[in-house]
UniProtKB/TrEMBL annotation, chain A:
Ranges for domain ABC transmembrane type-1: 131-341
Pfam families per record: BPD_transp_1 (PF00528), BPD_transp_1_N (PF19300)
Annotated protein name in UniProt: ABC transporter permease
CDD domains documented for this protein: TM_PBP2 (cd06261)
Membrane topology: Multi-pass membrane protein
Chaperone in keyword set: no
From TrEMBL, chain B:
Domain of life: Bacteria
Organism: Planomonospora alba
Protein name per UniProt: ABC transporter substrate-binding protein
Keywords noted in UniProt: Signal
PANTHER family: ABC TRANSPORTER SUBSTRATE-BINDING PROTEIN, PERIPLASMIC BINDING COMPONENT OF ABC TRANSPORTER
Length: 351, 589, 325
């Protein structure tokens, strides 16, 4: 924590060794996640009695003849042993793979997450294509919730016990108690369809196409999503502020005759924000992997919508791809937070 | 069926006018062009486009905009089973035969498209010969050859890759042992289709099939040059024979067509070429599509399956909006099948008890009430050729069930106090689940206690209701289903679902396991009867027999409420597709 | 995935709790906390409602007349499928109105759905607490490679996109397995998944507590007296862990209620016609413009329940650890 930092600089080699260790751990984690994901989507159905033909039948037309089903089994390699299927999947990510389109083959360079079972498009470009919508949603909402949540938390802490504090904390508690698909629907019904202030569901427009419409279409999702998080952050900030304000060094600072404003901003707030930044990193990582419920409610064509559609359409390669992608962001966020912590607080490194 | 909007073609039967009268539409006039006479949509009434062309106009130019809430299985005419795509793909792909461009019954007549005339069957009915029109070109200016039609049939029916479309040619053609053009590059080894010269295509069948012209009206007969085929990727670069060609196709996002200068209108009797550009956006929010339709920002909801509940509420309450809509039949019958192999439904009286006990008003509600479908009493739909109206199990004047009759049959079945059974339903189909719930509640009134079993629709046919072993083991007495045929005849509609010889160990659509010798023989007799009138009479007899078994419990003949913006010209409901004729539409500038 | 299921726990889990014994002081503090008492009252009421919703003799639902699965098609407009009367068909017979499409009584369905929400949330919390406390204590007590292994395991679990997995697994469950079938099986699977993936939150807290307890005098004393590990864990440390476990269980319940509702909302919860709050919301999506009452009622039911548990949980935590105030 700032304020209690011991003097001295960490050796570069120690930092480097630490980072290497964490990178290895992160990669290992991704491998484990990929195995587990693969097992859940391919092994569990098999264990529950699903046959390769049964799986293939989902990807052919409605009057599937046995020959057509066999064709799909062969094309999608569903009859291979699971370990071979996993090997192919892992190999694709690292080295890329080829895929038969019929008269010729399509190349899928690394990282290749395979091809959609439903529309035969490579998964990776689809993911990248959906990323801007998710990033727009996550970044915009996070700006609102960090600014809003932290300010409310600080004000509440400083006005502790007043009616303002109690009102803010009640609203914050309500915020964490409301499901987003409910607040989303209510806000759509109210602001989009009754009052007509904002466009309704499904109106997302890419920034590059029309920045104004991009902004308009995202205002409601931003606010709805931010409300949920702001509530959490306000509660955290308030608790953190109250704790640090009770610490000795704050009393010392006050005793030195520093202005209250300086005490709050320079000392208390800074100490409070460090753990909040950690949580922020993790939350943002989670959201970048797809805000499933928000994107579904507002029909935003992001990663979360993609994966829900893929699960409903049994599009296993897309589901696998998104899960890996989401896990990647979570692991990355963890990694960054760990490293930042280690740089800020050398004790972490040594333990 | 895997896809709700999977293709079916419909024919307008005798009930068409009845249906129209019920909806307050004007029946009559089936003439294209002359019937409309109204320049502005404001003059058009509800259901007008059902019987005549609304906003007739020859004005060219503009961009015609479609939106779809889903994404297609494929835009490749040889690899699609979506109803709207058999309509839409005609903009860039010409099959051998197609349906006449007319509203009403006239639109069900097949007319030659790529072919010079209808197919000529041999004496034994085992070969069908088509002559191609000369001088038809692809968008790159090269001429269409008979071999391209042969190749199109081979790739769409005999490869592991193109599995989304139907496989009728694989089923009926005599092509034993053929490996398909991707494994066997030599097309000469595909002996079931012969091309004696560049303008003649000869199909060789296993058995006589009198409705073969219907099969080649399927987009799979549209020619594909072998050198241009890129398999699964071909949907991005289809070689066009129609009035439009592909400019761009971003799979799952958008599809843009521009005019094909090499299309010769003199060879084409069914299409127009009015807009400069046609744009389709995929994966749009369904409610947003309705809003944009009503605001005139887009012109057509491509799926043709009708507006969502919110928009319907708006339309019902607003006569002006209602005049901008049509309410046609879709090719679908929504029904339940009672398993003749699951006790106590192996007893016909227990099946009859269900027929009488069901509250058909309650089972109509989930589809959207009268606007979502008419209460059904037969297996065939009113828009199938051969349909005759009859009701073997009249269940009360208000259609809410004849409980006394139901109890009589329960007693005759030896179950006077009712019994327990299961209703199987596709769990992810909300409307079907709601139908199951309504059925459950109505059966409860006579002591039949039904539990609802939900299964995923993806495996519905391969693992659950379509797998007789599973049905028997899990005592699935009642299964909620729906069916629309691939061509508008009794055979197209009925054969898959009532023929006892089509009961399969998996992927079975005759879920009631009805194996009635009379029915099977009638179907065989019908498909070999070349006289259409005699043939259609046979289909009506089959329907009668099926209903006599009491295993088929029809709920509604499905209808949709589709919206036509005022800016759309040349609008009429094509009876073969149950939606607007997408090759006729133009836009006001 | 939104952090909603996580957010509550994270919000609360920021700091460790000193293992002070429960007692008169905490109770006095709790009694003074009006919000917590209000929460507690609602929680007790809801629990009673859930227990007596359908039993004995048809329970509360029977008192109000209509069963949760009885359709009332006469009350609906056949053209739009929404209730004919204003305000969603609210009347004496149907105090909260009726559902579009089939006219089922909303109050009866809310009461019936309360059973599912609370049952799943309680059981799933039990599973998390059982796994989390055990692994937390083991990690904290033994330290070293055991601690490292369990901590890594927690990291891995936290790196899973939980909601996606839950949807996939519940979706893959057949109709019959493990001697259970239908909704009993689905509830078992949902409980298992929610519980199994949420244990790291409890484990993290218990581990922290155990670490600090390990260094305390009374544990040292027991150890120097030659007490067995089992004795130290169960007799000396466990009683001191009860309080934090109780607090965080109370805070985990609302998270789990939201989780169950999210699964039902996404269509992989309990099967219709059994009512569930999330499932009611899914059906309301199509009608939220035509029949907004059908969306508001289950939404508010979820909100009130979750809020009550959060108030109680906050109060309990504050009572046991005044520093957090």
């Amino acid at each position: 924590m700032p304020g209690s930092d011991p003097p001295g600089h960490p050796g570069r080699t120690i930092v480097f060794a630490f980072i290497v260790r964490r990178v290895i751990a992160a990669v290992l984690m991704l491998v484990i996640v990929s195995v587990a994901t693969f097992a859940i989507f391919f092994l569990i159905p098999r264990a529950l009695g699903q046959t390769p033909e049964g799986m293939a039948a989902r990807y052919v037309g409605r009057d599937a003849t046995p020959e057509a089903i066999q064709g799909a089994v062969r094309r999608l390699h569903l009859d291979d042993p699971l370990i071979v299927q996993y090997g192919r999947f892992a190999q694709g990510i690292v080295m890329g793979q080829d895929y038969s389109l019929g008269p010729r083959k399509a190349e899928c360079p690394a990282p290749c997450f395979g091809f959609s079972f439903n529309n035969n498009q490579p998964v990776w470009p689809t993911l990248l294509d959906r990323l801007p919508a998710t990033v727009s949603l996550a970044i915009g909402a996070s700006v609102i919730w960090v600014v809003g949540g932290v300010s409310i938390g600080v004000i509440s802490a400083l006005r502790r016990g007043t009616a303002l504090d109690r009102a803010a904390m009640t609203v914050a508690l309500a915020g964490v108690s409301l499901p987003i698909y409910f607040t989303g629907l209510v806000s759509l019904a109210l602001f989009a369809y009754t009052l007509g202030i904002f466009p309704g569901g499904g109106s997302y427009t890419p920034f590059t196409e029309n920045p104004v419409m991009w902004f308009q279409s995202l205002v409601l999702p931003w606010i709805t999503l931010a409300f949920l998080y702001a509530a959490t952050y306000a509660r955290l900030t308030r608790a953190g502020m109250l704790e640090t304000m009770g610490e000795d060094y704050i009393r010392t600072a006050r005793a030195k005759g520093l202005k209250e404003r300086t005490v709050v901003t320079k000392h208390a707030l800074r100490a409070t924000l460090t753990p909040i930044l950690t949580i922020f990193g993790l939350d943002l990582g989670l959201l970048l992997g797809g805000a499933v419920l928000t994107e579904s409610t507002f029909s935003i064509p992001g990663i979360g919508k993609l994966v829900i559609d893929a699960i409903r359409g049994n599009d296993l390669p897309v589901v696998l791809g998104v899960t890996m992608f989401a896990a990647f962001f979570i692991v990355l966020a963890n990694f960054i937070v760990d490293v930042l912590y280690a740089v800020v607080d050398p004790r972490v490194r040594l333990s | 069926m895997r896809k709700t909007n999977a293709l079916a073609l419909a024919a307008l039967g005798t009930a068409l006018t009845m249906g129209l009268a019920a909806c307050g539409g004007t029946a009559g006039g089936g003439n294209t062009g002359s019937g409309g006479g109204t320049g502005a949509a404001s003059g058009a009434k509800h259901n007008d486009a059902y019987t005549k062309v609304v906003n007739p106009s020859d004005a060219k130019g503009g961009t015609l905009k479609f939106a779809l809430s889903d994404e297609p299985d494929s835009m490749d005419p040889g690899n699609t089973y979506y109803a709207w795509n058999w309509n839409f793909s005609r903009l860039y792909a010409r099959p051998l035969m197609t349906y006449a461009a007319q509203p009403g019954e006239a639109g069900l007549k097949l007319v030659p498209d790529l072919a010079e005339g209808p197919g000529v069957a041999s004496e034994d009915g085992l070969t069908w010969t088509y002559k191609l029109k000369k001088g038809i070109k692809y968008d790159d200016g090269t001429e269409v050859k008979a071999a391209d039609v042969k190749y199109a049939i081979a790739r769409s029916n005999f490869t592991d890759e193109l599995t989304d479309g139907p496989k009728y040619f694989a089923q009926y053609l005599d092509a034993e042992g053929y490996k398909g053009p991707y494994k066997d590059k030599n097309l000469d080894n595909f002996k079931a289709v012969e091309t004696p010269d560049d303008y003649t295509v000869v199909f060789k069948l296993k058995e006589p099939f009198a409705e073969f012209d219907f099969l080649v009206a399927n987009p799979q007969s549209a020619p594909v040059p072998q050198a241009k085929d890129t398999g699964l990727d071909y949907e991005k670069t289809v070689a066009s024979t129609g009035p439009y060609k592909i400019e761009t196709h971003e799979v799952g996002k958008q599809f843009v067509l521009v005019k094909n200068e090499n299309w010769d209108p003199s060879t084409d009797t069914t299409r127009k070429q009015l807009p400069d550009r046609i744009e389709v956006q995929f994966k749009q929010n369904a409610e947003d599509i309705d809003k944009r339709l009503m605001a005139g920002q887009i012109h057509v909801d491509l799926a043709g399956t009708g507006v969502q509940t919110a928009a319907r509420g708006q339309i019902v309450g607003n006569p002006q909006l209602k005049d901008s809509t049509d309410n046609p039949y879709t090719p679908f019958n929504r029904y339940a099948m009672l398993s003749t192999k699951v006790a106590p439904f192996d007893n016909i009286d227990c099946r009859k008890a269900v027929q009488y006990a069901v509250d058909k008003v309650a089972t109509q509600l989930p589809w959207g009430g009268p606007l979502g479908g008419d209460i059904a009493t037969t297996a065939m739909t009113p828009t199938t050729v051969g349909y005759k109206q009859f009701d073997l199990y009249p269940n009360g004047a208000d259609k809410k069930g004849d409980l006394a009759k139901a109890k009589e049959h329960l007693a005759a079945c030896g179950q006077p106090n009712g019994f327990e059974t299961n209703i199987a339903v596709r769990g992810d189909r909300t409307k079907e689940v709601q139908v199951a719930e309504a059925l459950q509640a109505s059966l409860d009134r006579v002591g039949i206690k039904a539990s609802i079993k939900k299964y995923p629709s993806g495996d519905w046919s391969s693992q659950y209701a379509g797998k007789p072993d599973f049905v028997h083991q899990n005592k699935l007495g009642i299964m909620i289903a729906g069916w629309g045929s691939d061509w508008p005849s009794g055979f197209g509609f009925l054969s898959q679902i009532v023929d006892g010889r089509f009961i399969k160990a998996s992927g079975n659509y005759n879920m009631m396991e009805l194996d009635d010798k009379t029915i099977n023989e009638l179907l065989d007799k019908g498909i070999q009867t070349t006289d259409p009138a005699a043939r259609n009479e046979i289909w009506a007899q089959v329907d009668q027999k099926v209903m006599e078994s009491a295993a088929f419990l029809p709920f509604v003949y499905e209808k949709t409420l589709i919206f036509r913006p005022a800016s759309l010209t040349n609008v009429y409901v094509h009876p073969a597709y149950g939606m607007y004729d997408y090759t006729w539409l133009g836009v006001k500038q | 995935m939104e952090a909603q299921p996580e957010a509550v726990v994270q919000g609360a889990g920021g700091k460790a709790i000193e293992g002070r014994s429960l007692g008169q002081i905490a109770w006095t503090r709790l009694k003074r906390d009006k919000a917590a008492i209000a929460g507690a009252v609602v929680v007790v009421l809801l629990t009673l409602i859930a227990i007596f919703a359908e039993r004995p003799f048809g329970g509360l639902i029977a008192l109000f007349g209509d069963s949760p699965n009885t359709p009332n098609n006469d009350l609906l407009d056949p053209l739009t499928s929404v209730p004919l009367a204003d305000w969603g068909g609210i009347s004496l017979e149907h105090p909260l109105g009726v559902e579009p499409v089939n006219g089922r009584d909303i109050l009866a369905r809310i009461l019936s759905g309360a059973q599912i929400s609370l049952l799943v949330a309680f059981l799933a919390t039990l599973v998390s607490v059982a796994i989390g406390s055990l692994l937390g204590v083991v990690a904290g007590f033994f330290g070293g490679w055991v601690d490292m292994l369990i901590s890594r395991l927690m990291d891995i679990f936290l790196a899973f996109p939980l909601l996606l997995f839950a949807i996939a697994i519940v979706g893959a469950v057949p109709d019959q397995a493990l001697g259970l079938k239908g909704n009993a099986l689905r509830i078992a699977v949902i409980v298992f998944i929610i519980g199994f993936f949420n244990w790291p939150y409890i484990a993290r807290i218990v581990r922290g507590q155990t670490l600090s307890l390990r260094e305390r005098e009374f544990v040292d004393a027991a150890r120097s007296l030659g007490a067995s590990r089992r004795h130290i864990i169960f007799r000396e440390m466990f009683p001191n862990l009860v309080a934090p476990i109780l607090v965080y269980s109370t805070l985990l319940i609302p998270t789990n209620i939201l989780f169950e509702a999210a699964l039902s909302f996404l269509g992989v919860g309990v099967a219709e016609p059994q009512a569930s709050w999330g499932g009611m919301l899914t059906r309301a999506v199509d009608y939220y413009q035509l029949a907004p009452h059908f969306m508001l009622v289950p939404g508010l039911a979820i909100f009130i329940t979750v809020m009550a548990f959060n108030l109680l949980g906050d109060g309990l935590r504050d009572a046991l650890d005044p520093r957090a105030r």
